[in-house]
Structure formats: C-alpha cells, structure tokens
Amino acid sequence: MPHTGTHSPQPTSPTSGPKDRLSVDPEALFVYGSLQFPDVLFALIDRVPDHEPVAAEGWRVAALPERVYPGLVPGDGIARGFLLTGLSAEEWRVLDAFEDPVYDLTRIALLDGRHGWGYVCNPGAEVEAHDWSAEDFQTRDLPTYVERCAAWRRRYEQRKQAG
C-alpha cells in the first residue's frame, strides 16, 4: 500500500532516472537499509568504506512488500543510516547494479547540513504502512541475505567477464 501521509521535504535535486543513475557523479552514499551492514558491503564490494552515522529529516525507511530490505520514501520523521564515502567508480557501479529498479538515485539533504545520494523509492512504488526494522533484519535475515549478496556478486563478475 503506498504511503499516503503528508509528504515532507522532497529531494533536493531531480532523480537521475533508472537508465543511467550514475551520470550524476555521486560523491557520498546515504545508506539506510541492508547496505548499512558491514557484512553486506563486504559481500558486494570486498570492503567496508569509510562511514559515519547520519540522518535525513522528512523521510522514512519503509518496509517493502515481500522484500527483506526497505525503501526510502518521503514521510514524517527522520531516516537514520550511514554516509559512505571514498567509494571508487567501480564500487559505485557494483552497488548501482545491485540496487533494485524500484529505486532512483536522489540527492538528499542531511541533518548536519551535508548531502548524500540515496536510493529512493520511485513515486508510486508500493510500500508498507510500517517502517522497516534494522534489528529484525539483522536477527532474521542478515546471514541468508549476505549469502544472496555474495552469490549475486559472483554472477555479476561472471557477466562482466563474459560481456
């Protein structure tokens, strides 16, 4: 069910669109869901980049139907996560290829006055009325999800070598 509450501040710049999301040359990535877990990052890019806790007002981390990972949507409250810095161009490509097409890469204002790029649900994407729980994800889904990420990365590398 789409979130229908009062929408708080909108993205500070237009989304880049799904076809060429990295054309914006992003600098720092705001992560709020599965990418905030070091094991997931390591499975995808073989390291945990520099990161620090940050928050964005006017957003919520919504549960997505039939998915273990969340979506960032405009909403009342504050979305908490981490700002990843120092990502290489190849790491950005891997993370962008990994992300679900339900997202657009969008520049987001952070509470500390900086900006980060974040994967935001496309307008009209179906989201749950309740927020996603990082604690529940860590307890129930993290080990299996890390295995899925590692398998995805192997397939990604094979496709890259073949093509």
TrEMBL record:
Keywords: Transferase. The lineage of its organism: Bacteria, Bacillati, Actinomycetota, Actinomycetes, Streptosporangiales. Residues 29-133 form the Gamma-glutamylcyclotransferase AIG2-like domain. Transmembrane segments: none annotated. Residues 1-21 are annotated as: Disordered. Residues 1-16 have a biased composition (Polar residues). It comes from the Bacteria. InterPro entries: AIG2-like, AIG2-like_dom, GGCT-like, GGCT-like_sf. This is Putative gamma-glutamylcyclotransferase. Signal peptide: none annotated.
